[in-house]
User: Which sequence fits this backbone?
Protein backbone atom coordinates (compact mmCIF):
# COMPACT_ATOMS: atom_id res chain seq x y z
CA UNK A 1 0.00 0.00 0.00
CA UNK A 2 2.77 2.43 0.94
CA UNK A 3 4.59 1.65 -2.30
CA UNK A 4 1.41 2.37 -4.29
CA UNK A 5 0.95 5.73 -2.52
CA UNK A 6 4.58 6.63 -3.13
CA UNK A 7 4.32 5.85 -6.85
CA UNK A 8 1.03 7.76 -7.10
CA UNK A 9 2.67 10.86 -5.62
CA UNK A 10 5.63 10.50 -8.00
CA UNK A 11 3.27 10.34 -10.98
CA UNK A 12 1.40 13.45 -9.83
CA UNK A 13 4.69 15.34 -9.50
CA UNK A 14 5.81 14.20 -12.96
CA UNK A 15 2.57 15.51 -14.49
CA UNK A 16 2.91 18.95 -12.88
CA UNK A 17 6.61 19.72 -12.32
CA UNK A 18 9.28 19.71 -15.02
CA UNK A 19 12.48 17.95 -13.97
CA UNK A 20 15.13 15.69 -15.44
CA UNK A 21 14.83 11.96 -14.80
CA UNK A 22 17.78 9.62 -15.09
CA UNK A 23 17.93 6.09 -16.46
CA UNK A 24 18.68 2.55 -15.44
CA UNK A 25 20.48 0.03 -17.64
CA UNK A 26 18.58 -3.25 -18.04
CA UNK A 27 19.96 -6.36 -19.73
CA UNK A 28 17.86 -8.69 -21.87
CA UNK A 29 19.06 -12.04 -23.13
CA UNK A 30 17.96 -12.81 -26.69
CA UNK A 31 18.35 -16.18 -28.35
CA UNK A 32 19.06 -14.42 -31.63
CA UNK A 33 22.00 -12.28 -30.53
CA UNK A 34 22.86 -12.75 -26.86
CA UNK A 35 22.72 -10.03 -24.20
CA UNK A 36 21.31 -6.61 -25.11
CA UNK A 37 21.56 -3.59 -22.84
CA UNK A 38 18.79 -0.99 -22.78
CA UNK A 39 18.55 2.33 -20.92
CA UNK A 40 15.09 2.66 -19.40
CA UNK A 41 13.92 6.14 -18.45
CA UNK A 42 13.09 6.60 -14.76
CA UNK A 43 10.20 8.93 -15.52
CA UNK A 44 7.34 7.65 -13.27
CA UNK A 45 4.81 8.09 -16.10
CA UNK A 46 6.70 5.82 -18.50
CA UNK A 47 6.33 2.03 -18.56
CA UNK A 48 9.75 0.32 -18.72
CA UNK A 49 10.67 -1.17 -22.09
CA UNK A 50 11.45 -4.87 -22.49
CA UNK A 51 13.37 -6.05 -25.55
CA UNK A 52 12.64 -9.65 -26.55
CA UNK A 53 13.09 -12.11 -29.42
CA UNK A 54 9.52 -11.67 -30.69
CA UNK A 55 10.13 -7.94 -31.15
CA UNK A 56 13.41 -8.44 -33.00
CA UNK A 57 11.82 -11.15 -35.18
CA UNK A 58 9.06 -8.71 -36.14
CA UNK A 59 11.59 -6.25 -37.56
CA UNK A 60 13.65 -9.02 -39.17
CA UNK A 61 10.75 -9.51 -41.61
CA UNK A 62 11.71 -6.17 -43.17
CA UNK A 63 15.30 -5.36 -42.19
CA UNK A 64 18.50 -7.22 -43.02
CA UNK A 65 22.15 -6.62 -41.99
CA UNK A 66 23.70 -3.64 -43.76
CA UNK A 67 20.44 -1.74 -44.32
CA UNK A 68 19.81 1.96 -43.69
CA UNK A 69 16.75 2.18 -41.43
CA UNK A 70 15.11 5.29 -40.00
CA UNK A 71 13.02 5.75 -36.85
CA UNK A 72 11.12 9.06 -36.96
CA UNK A 73 9.83 9.65 -33.44
CA UNK A 74 12.33 7.38 -31.72
CA UNK A 75 11.42 8.37 -28.17
CA UNK A 76 13.99 6.65 -25.91
CA UNK A 77 14.70 3.96 -28.51
CA UNK A 78 12.14 1.24 -27.78
CA UNK A 79 11.82 0.47 -31.50
CA UNK A 80 15.14 1.99 -32.58
CA UNK A 81 17.18 -0.61 -30.72
CA UNK A 82 15.47 -3.74 -32.15
CA UNK A 83 15.58 -2.13 -35.60
CA UNK A 84 19.32 -1.57 -35.13
CA UNK A 85 19.85 -5.15 -33.99
CA UNK A 86 18.39 -6.29 -37.31
CA UNK A 87 20.44 -3.83 -39.40
CA UNK A 88 23.52 -4.82 -37.42
CA UNK A 89 26.90 -3.18 -37.00
CA UNK A 90 27.31 -3.07 -40.79
CA UNK A 91 24.03 -1.18 -41.15
CA UNK A 92 22.98 2.31 -40.14
CA UNK A 93 20.04 3.16 -37.88
CA UNK A 94 18.95 6.79 -37.57
CA UNK A 95 16.77 7.82 -34.65
CA UNK A 96 15.07 11.22 -34.97
CA UNK A 97 13.30 12.80 -32.01
CA UNK A 98 12.78 16.52 -31.30
CA UNK A 99 12.02 16.03 -27.59
CA UNK A 100 15.25 16.80 -25.66
CA UNK A 101 14.08 14.84 -22.59
CA UNK A 102 13.67 11.52 -24.39
CA UNK A 103 16.63 12.32 -26.65
CA UNK A 104 18.94 12.26 -23.63
CA UNK A 105 17.96 8.63 -23.02
CA UNK A 106 18.08 7.81 -26.75
CA UNK A 107 21.71 8.97 -26.77
CA UNK A 108 22.51 6.52 -24.00
CA UNK A 109 20.87 3.67 -25.91
CA UNK A 110 22.86 4.61 -29.02
CA UNK A 111 26.05 4.26 -26.98
CA UNK A 112 25.20 0.71 -25.84
CA UNK A 113 25.57 -2.58 -27.79
CA UNK A 114 28.09 -1.06 -30.19
CA UNK A 115 29.39 -4.51 -31.09
CA UNK A 116 25.92 -5.28 -32.51
CA UNK A 117 24.41 -1.96 -33.63
CA UNK A 118 25.21 1.39 -35.26
CA UNK A 119 22.68 3.96 -34.02
CA UNK A 120 22.87 7.68 -34.78
CA UNK A 121 20.55 9.75 -32.52
CA UNK A 122 19.38 13.06 -34.01
CA UNK A 123 17.57 15.69 -31.94
CA UNK A 124 15.38 17.05 -34.75
CA UNK A 125 11.90 16.71 -36.21
CA UNK A 126 11.25 15.74 -39.83
CA UNK A 127 9.35 18.51 -41.61
CA UNK A 128 8.68 19.69 -45.17
CA UNK A 129 11.09 22.61 -44.80
CA UNK A 130 13.81 23.70 -42.39
CA UNK A 131 12.16 25.60 -39.57
CA UNK A 132 12.13 26.10 -35.78
CA UNK A 133 9.22 24.86 -33.66
CA UNK A 134 7.96 24.83 -30.12
CA UNK A 135 7.82 21.43 -28.42
CA UNK A 136 4.67 21.05 -26.34
CA UNK A 137 3.44 18.33 -24.00
CA UNK A 138 0.44 17.51 -21.85
CA UNK A 139 2.83 16.43 -19.07
CA UNK A 140 5.44 18.50 -17.24
CA UNK A 141 7.91 15.62 -17.55
CA UNK A 142 7.63 15.75 -21.37
CA UNK A 143 7.08 12.04 -21.78
CA UNK A 144 4.89 12.79 -24.81
CA UNK A 145 4.15 15.75 -27.04
CA UNK A 146 4.64 17.25 -30.46
CA UNK A 147 5.86 20.24 -32.41
CA UNK A 148 3.93 23.43 -33.08
CA UNK A 149 4.59 26.75 -34.81
CA UNK A 150 2.82 28.52 -31.92
CA UNK A 151 2.56 27.97 -28.17
CA UNK A 152 -1.14 27.27 -28.56
CA UNK A 153 -1.34 23.56 -29.41
CA UNK A 154 -3.51 20.47 -29.08
CA UNK A 155 -0.52 18.73 -27.48
CA UNK A 156 -0.93 20.42 -24.10
CA UNK A 157 0.09 23.37 -21.95
CA UNK A 158 3.73 22.62 -21.14
CA UNK A 159 6.01 24.39 -23.62
CA UNK A 160 9.78 24.09 -23.88
CA UNK A 161 11.50 27.47 -23.71
CA UNK A 162 14.02 26.68 -26.45
CA UNK A 163 12.67 25.90 -29.90
CA UNK A 164 13.64 22.69 -31.68
CA UNK A 165 14.69 22.26 -35.30
CA UNK A 166 12.74 20.64 -38.10
CA UNK A 167 14.51 19.47 -41.26
CA UNK A 168 13.45 17.86 -44.57
CA UNK A 169 14.65 14.26 -44.58
CA UNK A 170 15.92 13.85 -48.14
CA UNK A 171 18.39 16.79 -48.11
CA UNK A 172 19.51 15.79 -44.62
CA UNK A 173 20.33 12.26 -45.75
CA UNK A 174 22.02 13.47 -48.93
CA UNK A 175 24.26 15.75 -46.85
CA UNK A 176 25.05 13.52 -43.87
CA UNK A 177 24.60 9.92 -45.08
CA UNK A 178 25.07 9.99 -48.88
CA UNK A 179 26.93 6.67 -48.94
CA UNK A 180 24.09 4.92 -47.08
CA UNK A 181 21.09 6.09 -49.11
CA UNK A 182 21.11 3.25 -51.62
CA UNK A 183 20.54 0.86 -48.68
CA UNK A 184 17.38 2.61 -47.43
CA UNK A 185 14.83 -0.17 -46.81
CA UNK A 186 12.73 0.77 -43.78
CA UNK A 187 11.14 3.88 -42.22
CA UNK A 188 9.10 3.84 -39.01
CA UNK A 189 7.05 6.93 -38.14
CA UNK A 190 5.42 7.74 -34.80
CA UNK A 191 4.79 11.47 -34.69
CA UNK A 192 1.74 12.09 -32.50
CA UNK A 193 -0.71 12.33 -35.39
CA UNK A 194 1.60 13.97 -37.94
CA UNK A 195 2.54 10.71 -39.65
CA UNK A 196 0.57 11.56 -42.81
CA UNK A 197 2.29 14.94 -43.12
CA UNK A 198 5.71 13.35 -42.73
CA UNK A 199 4.89 10.73 -45.36
CA UNK A 200 3.91 13.53 -47.75
CA UNK A 201 7.18 15.34 -47.04
CA UNK A 202 9.29 12.22 -47.80
CA UNK A 203 7.33 10.87 -50.76
CA UNK A 204 10.24 11.47 -53.16
CA UNK A 205 12.42 9.21 -51.00
CA UNK A 206 9.69 6.58 -50.88
CA UNK A 207 9.26 6.55 -54.65
CA UNK A 208 13.03 6.32 -55.19
CA UNK A 209 13.89 3.58 -52.70
CA UNK A 210 10.56 1.81 -51.94
CA UNK A 211 11.20 1.25 -48.22
CA UNK A 212 8.77 -0.53 -45.94
CA UNK A 213 6.75 2.13 -44.07
CA UNK A 214 5.37 1.81 -40.55
CA UNK A 215 3.02 4.54 -39.33
CA UNK A 216 0.18 5.23 -36.92
CA UNK A 217 -3.41 5.96 -37.80
CA UNK A 218 -4.22 8.39 -35.00
CA UNK A 219 -7.35 8.17 -32.86
CA UNK A 220 -8.17 11.89 -33.25
CA UNK A 221 -8.08 11.83 -37.04
CA UNK A 222 -11.40 12.15 -38.85
CA UNK A 223 -12.47 9.97 -41.80
CA UNK A 224 -10.99 12.38 -44.32
CA UNK A 225 -7.56 12.37 -42.65
CA UNK A 226 -7.55 8.59 -42.35
CA UNK A 227 -8.59 8.28 -45.98
CA UNK A 228 -5.75 10.62 -47.03
CA UNK A 229 -3.25 8.47 -45.14
CA UNK A 230 -4.54 5.32 -46.83
CA UNK A 231 -4.69 6.91 -50.27
CA UNK A 232 -1.19 8.36 -50.22
CA UNK A 233 0.31 4.97 -49.29
CA UNK A 234 -1.76 3.31 -52.02
CA UNK A 235 -0.52 5.92 -54.51
CA UNK A 236 3.02 4.56 -54.01
CA UNK A 237 1.73 1.16 -55.22
CA UNK A 238 1.94 -0.29 -51.71
CA UNK A 239 -0.12 -2.90 -49.86
CA UNK A 240 -1.29 -1.79 -46.42
CA UNK A 241 -1.63 -3.95 -43.31
CA UNK A 242 -2.93 -3.48 -39.78
CA UNK A 243 -0.75 -5.10 -37.11
CA UNK A 244 -1.61 -5.46 -33.46
CA UNK A 245 1.86 -5.10 -31.93
CA UNK A 246 5.57 -5.06 -32.69
CA UNK A 247 5.76 -8.84 -32.17
CA UNK A 248 6.24 -11.59 -34.75
CA UNK A 249 3.21 -13.50 -33.47
CA UNK A 250 0.84 -10.49 -33.28
CA UNK A 251 -2.29 -10.37 -35.41
CA UNK A 252 -1.93 -8.92 -38.94
CA UNK A 253 -4.71 -8.01 -41.37
CA UNK A 254 -4.47 -6.88 -44.99
CA UNK A 255 -6.39 -3.60 -45.42
CA UNK A 256 -7.57 -4.11 -48.98
CA UNK A 257 -9.80 -1.04 -49.09
CA UNK A 258 -10.04 2.19 -47.13
CA UNK A 259 -13.15 1.02 -45.26
CA UNK A 260 -11.01 -1.72 -43.70
CA UNK A 261 -8.96 1.06 -42.08
CA UNK A 262 -11.87 3.32 -41.17
CA UNK A 263 -13.53 0.66 -39.01
CA UNK A 264 -10.77 1.03 -36.39
CA UNK A 265 -11.70 3.72 -33.87
CA UNK A 266 -8.54 3.77 -31.72
CA UNK A 267 -4.96 4.63 -32.67
CA UNK A 268 -3.56 1.67 -34.64
CA UNK A 269 -0.29 0.65 -36.22
CA UNK A 270 -0.07 -0.03 -39.94
CA UNK A 271 2.72 -1.11 -42.23
CA UNK A 272 2.91 -0.65 -45.98
CA UNK A 273 4.92 -2.84 -48.36
CA UNK A 274 5.74 -2.16 -52.01
CA UNK A 275 3.78 -4.53 -54.22
CA UNK A 276 5.95 -7.25 -55.70
Assistant:
Amino acid sequence: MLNYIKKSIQRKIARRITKEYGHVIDTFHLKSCGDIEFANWKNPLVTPVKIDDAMVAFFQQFIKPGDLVIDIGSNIGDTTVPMAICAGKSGCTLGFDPNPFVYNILKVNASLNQDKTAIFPINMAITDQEEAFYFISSEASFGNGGISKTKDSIHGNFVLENKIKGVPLKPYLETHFPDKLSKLTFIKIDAEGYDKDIIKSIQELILLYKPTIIAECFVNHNHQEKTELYDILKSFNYDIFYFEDFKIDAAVKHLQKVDDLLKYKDTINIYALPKR
